[in-house]
Write a structure and sequence with these properties.
The complex is a heterodimer of chains A (about 240) and B (about 160).
Chain A: H1 3-14, H2 21-34, H3 39-45, H4 73-85, H5 89-110, E1 129-131, E2 136-140, H6 142-151, E3 155-158, H7 162-167, E4 174-175, H8 182-189, E5 198-201, H9 209-220, E6 225-228, H10 231-243
Parallel strand pairs in A: 2-6, 3-4, 3-5, 5-6
Antiparallel strand pairs in A: 1-2
Chain B: H1 4-30, H2 32-41, H3 48-71, H4 75-98, H5 119-125, H6 127-146
Helix pairs in contact in B: 1-3, 1-6, 2-3, 3-4, 4-6
Classes of the chains: A alpha/beta (about 240), B mainly alpha (about 160).
């Protein structure tokens, strides 16, 4: 193995300008397989402890190069290249951010309960009824609910979990979680007449708990049940707009 | 002088930050809609679509940073992200505190501790406590970041 061939092996071992620990070992192994006689010399240059445990990248082992056959200009140049191989911090941070964005978007597309980026909670183009296959519930927007609340006589129901209700809810709303049992629902609604105007809401446009609960209320005999499709998000956005 | 205690303190702090970030991420991922409505409750001057994007991406950013801190992977990048996140949390919760908003910070789920809904739970979820907590965590992340160079081996 002459010097030129050995340098080729080392270049093969080091690969490109950037490499991870796994790539490093893979390339080193590939170089050893191609040039078995270079094994000893490669080990001088590519010892595992020369991997930076923080960045998981290789730093060139200068201390071993003193007794090395390849101590020439090209190897020193290679050392400089390897130092450049440590990717800069902003790029690594961008990598983390893009990974988070990709994971978030993928998770969101498979999660029916996640907020949809294509929907606008304050959009006026919300359909005026929502169909659940076994029934249709009329929908209402926050301004309509606000007017009904101002007039009095409206029962506003938060269909989310009680913990979510405790965290944040529309003032004057009562909590009836959508997963409540039939007997529990009967008990909670027994004091209202069947013609009582009721509006049900949950978190936002993507949430279907309110429609499900509204349908159950309809099945119990309540005739004036509406679904505030935009949910708590619509209320919060509307209130934010009104305070500007 | 660097002592074993210093190294241990760093490891402990890093693990605390990592676990808190993981806890926060999983709390948000368990109910992304709730997190979105929590963000809306801050009444920030930003578009709903941006808040939706934040509610979708932020939990994953926290999850990645938390895992990287615990596994000691690319610590400088993870710590710098943690710094940025805690600084933003401190600013936003501080703003909510200053404006007197009576909201839940939407940071951590406490229900498995049996604190959800009671006075202690309300205090821990309050904007004021969240702000103080974020400032302390930000300081810890800065301390760790300053002590972690590109070449410094991190104790596992």
């Amino acid at each position: 193995l002459n010097q030129r061939e050995a340098q080729g092996c080392i270049k093969l071992a080091l690969g490109g300008r950037r490499f991870t620990a796994a790539q490093y070992f893979f390339r080193e192994q590939a170089a050893v397989e191609r040039c078995p006689s270079a094994n000893h010399r490669l080990n001088r240059f590519c010892l595992p402890h020369d991997l930076d445990p923080v960045t998981k990248t290789a730093s060139y082992p200068v201390r071993n190069s003193i007794d090395c056959n390849f101590r020439d200009r090209s190897i020193l140049d290679m050392e400089g290249q390897t130092n450049k191989a440590v990717r800069s911090l902003p790029w690594r941070m961008l990598g983390i951010l893009f990974t988070a964005i990709a994971l978030g978007l993928v998770f969101n597309s498979f999660n029916p309960m996640a907020p949809s980026l294509s929907e606008n909670d304050s959009d006026s183009a919300v359909p005026n009824s929502v169909s659940l296959g076994i029934g249709t519930i009329p929908t209402v927007k926050w301004p309509g609910v606000k007017a009904l609340l101002a007039n009095g006589g409206l029962v506003l129901i938060d269909a989310r979990s009680f913990e979510s209700y405790e965290t944040n809810h529309i003032p004057s709303a009562i909590s009836i979680p959508a997963e409540i049992s039939d007997s529990g629902l009967n008990l909670k609604t027994s004091k209202y007449s069947r013609s009582q105007p009721i509006v049900v809401y949950c978190a936002s446009e993507s949430c279907h708990l309110s429609a499900a609960l509204a349908l159950r209320l309809r099945q119990l005999g309540f005739t004036n049940v509406q679904d505030m499709k935009g949910g708590l998000a619509e209320y919060l956005l509307a209130e934010q707009e009104s305070t500007k | 002088m660097k002592t074993a205690f210093n190294l241990d303190l760093r490891v402990i702090l890093r693990w605390i930050l990592g676990i808190l970030l993981l806890w926060a991420a999983l709390s948000k991922l368990a109910n992304v809609q709730e997190f979105y409505t929590s963000l809306l409750a801050y009444k920030l001057p930003s578009s709903p679509i941006l808040l939706k994007l934040v509610s979708i991406v932020l939990p994953w950013l926290e999850l990645l940073c938390g895992l990287m801190l615990i596994a000691s992977i690319d610590l400088r990048a993870a710590l710098l992200w943690a710094n940025i996140l805690f600084a933003i949390f401190a600013a936003i919760t501080g703003l909510a505190w200053a404006r007197g908003l009576n909201i839940s910070c939407g940071c951590l789920h406490l229900d498995f501790l049996g604190l959800e809904g009671n006075a202690m739970g309300h205090f821990l979820e309050s904007a004021a406590f969240a702000c103080v907590r974020a400032v302390i965590l930000c300081a810890a992340a800065v301390y760790l970041f300053k002590g972690t160079s590109e070449k410094t081996p991190a104790p596992v």
